[in-house]
Write a structure and sequence with these properties.
The chain is about 40% helix and about 5% strand. With about 90 residues, the protein is mainly alpha-helical. The chain has a domain of about 40 residues. Helix 1 runs antiparallel to helix 2.
Amino acid sequence: MFSYSDGMLPGPRGGQHVHPNAGPLGGQIAATFIATNTVHGLPTLTGFTRTFAMSALVLAGCAVAGLLIPTRPRAITRLEPAATPETG
């Protein structure tokens, strides 16, 4: 049996599952941006703009990191011409 609390999930290779901590952390940072930009207790547009900018920068960083992941070279196979009645 497996337990979600120990980080191990069933899979074809029995790999480990990293618990997602970035979502709650990003939510708290976004809440901080919004809470520090208030007027008379109401959030201003600046907090939401900074939160969007932070999200866009994190997304761009993740995209760059994803592109830097090395891949295996693909095997190139040569195709031989099909035999015809003239060539035998």
